[in-house]
Amino acid sequence: MSSHREAPEIAKDPAADGTDTYAFIPKDNPDKVVLVANFIPLQQPDGGPNFYEFADDVHYEIHISNSGTSKPDITYRFEFHTEVRNDKTFLYNTGPIDSIDSKSWNRPQYYMIKKTENGKTGRLTPTWLPCPPVNVGKRSTPDYASLADQATHMIRGGRKVYAGQRADAFHVDLGSVFDLGALRPFNDAHLIPMAKMDGINSVQSYNVHTIALEVPITELTRDGKKPTDVFGDTSTIGVWATASRQKNKMYDRSQPSGYSWTGPWRQVSRLGNPLFNEVIVPMAEKDRWNMREPHRDRLYSKYVNHPELAALLPALYPGVFPNLKAYTKPRADLHAILMTGIPKGVVDGFANYTGPVPSDMLRLNLAVPPSDEENPLGVVGGDPAGWPNGRRLGDDVVTIALRAVAGLTIPLVDKSYTPDDAASAVTDGTTNTNAALLDTFPYLGLPGGGYQTQPGTTQAS
Questions:
Q1: 93 in a domain, yes or no?
Q2: Rounded distance, CA 290 to CA 310, Å?
Q3: Is 210 a member of any domain?
Q4: What is the pLDDT of residues 148-174, one digit of tens each?
Q5: Has residue 445 been placed in a domain?
Q6: Residue 205: pLDDT band by 50, 70, 90 thresholds?
Q7: Residue 458 falls within a domain, yes or no?
Q8: Range of the domain at 326
Q9: Beta partners for 256?
Q10: What's the mean pLDDT in 26-46?
Q11: Total structural domains in the chain?
Q12: CA-CA distance, 162 to 164, in Å (whole number)?
């Protein structure tokens, strides 16, 4: 998965577990950038009576690097506060929730946003903003689209924000991929062959909790201007998201949970490029990676230069990837895509290089306009507005990553290499069968409702 339960320790702490990070210029507002960080993976919509929510004891942050250092130059921090209106009931709601300030909602949640830049921190929200409830079902949340609209807030500086439950936009065949690296469309070629079939989207029917922030492009650039030159020094930014907890958890019976957190804040989850910690970093180092900052990622370059998956593909699919099997050079193509950005001269008319510091970040070139017709294969499919240039909600990152690891992108840096025929065809065979994406902010689909949910399917209403 992109980063759902990607490391042993964070898998035990879903409230702090980042699942996906996105950064893109929206077609309906091309002077803005949309930053999305999803948390709390694999939410069953019918998971009451204690439904999913952001944690009050976690700092959720989106970081921007615009100085070529891979260090955060701008950080947006989201802090949450939850109330219980009626402490005599076990119910999440005591009647229909017809507005986000409805007294029937027994456990409302609120948040504030703080921005840190140039060492100074200030609040972007003078008051606590309300989240929407989760989509409980047709009786409890009869018009969820209206609740979600009420929870979309305009804040000063031409910014827009949403924090609450949405449908997951990621798709992947988990059941097959982690069953000895099988891809259902290529089952017959696997070391343990089975009948070919379409991929199955394992994420279908699950929700996530989304933080979506739309800000002017000029707020994120080093010089405060909107870039127009793809190759300009200020055109590309790095983006990643993190979650942090205080260092010490102590028994405290005065708290409703019986515990309190104290001490300095420590990062416990992070996510830039999709699938990096999932399939690049070895299991024994995954938790350590989650705690590190991107500018210290040089340690992980060796796993990018010689990825385990590139060796597994020829072993799992005998005879299908002979050229990949014979290729022993460091994977300079993957290192550029994942660790430094793509420099000028590698892809005609495009670059998103952020400097020589190896670091896992999404890299978004702000001078590349949004595509009129998006190709879900992004840059590999000839669409420079898609991943690995930022990441859009509709980008098929699993297929892109599989084809890159399989050798399709090696000729970008090594003209002597000929990709295997399968490299341009490999896929897990899934499509986004989750709720439909929206054309307007916050762009992710409405979350599935509890009452409406059946195993393997979901509806927003």
A1: yes
A2: 23
A3: yes
A4: 999 999 999 999 999 999 999 999 999
A5: no
A6: confident
A7: no
A8: 10-424
A9: none
A10: 97
A11: 1
A12: 7
